[in-house]
Amino acid sequence: MTLTTKLPMKTWFGLAAGLGLALSLAGQAGATDLTFYYPVAVGGPVTKVIDGMAADFEKANPDIHIKPVYAGSYQDTIAKTLTALKGGDAPQVAVILSTDMFTLIDEDAIVPFDSLAKTADDKAWLKGFYPGFMENSQTGGKTWGVPFQRSTVVMFWNKELFKEAGLDPEKPPQTWAELVSMGKKLTRRDAAGNVTSWGIQVPSSGFPYWLFQCFTTQNDVKLMNSAGNQTYFDKPAVVEALQYWVDLSRKDKIHPPGIVEWGTTPKDFFEKKAAMIWTTTGNLTNIRKNAKFEFGTAMLPAGKRRGSPTGGGNFYVFKSGSAEQQAAAFKFAKWMTEPKRAAEWAIATGYVAVSPAAWQTKEMKDYVAEFPAPLVARDQLEHAVAELSTHENQRVTKALNDGLQAALTGAKSPKQAMEDAQREADRILKAYR
């Protein structure tokens, strides 16, 4: 006689329900849920791309569930992350500015990737990124972030406006002096003397310190040390770099006066309100889709040297996650940055593919054969420096940003603005020396 005939029906239903509940709990226990904070602060619609990549990862890893949370700008994302940490509801993985590395370390928020890299393949992957991008990813002998959407600042120029100004449309300015001389020919005014198109436009809202670091790098001076506890804002060469930026509008009259908006700069380029702009290479796909004229992409012109800071976001894995979540977050970051997907992401957005191996994929080779512009940002890595990053990075960059905007609006001289910014940075960083 079978077991079922010996048990009352009520008992049988109870056992069946219990078994179902146990199987359900076992299924839930087998899945690892990850909350993924992602900053939407780039040109073009990237949320669909991120959603698609997350879905593809889940298909390949059915035991891991990714929940992307679009957290706003980079500033919004770090603020929301720190708030969530204090509230006990932190994400397990996030893309946050590479420059926020010191802040996240000081908050004891993240785990180094080295501790999560278990296999030889993991360790090889970790060593495969461009060294220029790792300068804002490593400190104290540990790797705290891995590059994902990284960039340099590049120059876009309108070839049609160059032709109309009598300039060779295939030759952008190579030096600071050429930028001024060409900018004067490209700045157009109506009969009343009002500017209808500026020669050059460099944004000074959003990330003014980042664009300013282009000028300081080109003037062969650094803004901070590698330990993140000392800044050099008041050095004569830094003041000279700011004076050059200020002079573009006030003396040379080839650049819009006052504060130039980060978000509208690509649009001004589309509308021919600016013949040349400096912006992130992350806007490349956006500009390619929207510019109704032939344009060029070039390295930034040289002062004493060429140069741009690197920029953009890294993947970080958070300490608040369980061991399983940290391992899953590592797997996700590795999957998202492997050569084929790094190439696909670069093609979709315009960001720099973060490893030499990504440039050797068929997808990337085919892409640059037809559209070579992305090579500019990659090649500029040879001249790139680490983006400004310090302890208390939000406060230190605010001190510099306030000084830059005071100089650009004429509220302070470049010298006074930089001395004031350095004084504030010294006050903030004193505890870290």
TrEMBL record:
Protein's UniProt keywords contain Hydrolase: no
Lineage top rank: taxon: Bacteria
Record-linked SUPFAM superfamilies: Periplasmic binding protein-like II
InterPro entries according to UniProt: Bact_solute-bd_prot1, SBP
Pfam families per UniProt: SBP_bac_8
Keywords: Signal
Signal sequence, renumbered to the chain: 1-31
Main location: periplasm
Name of the protein this chain belongs to: ABC transporter substrate-binding protein
Organism phylogeny: Bacteria, Pseudomonadati, Pseudomonadota, Alphaproteobacteria, Rhodospirillales
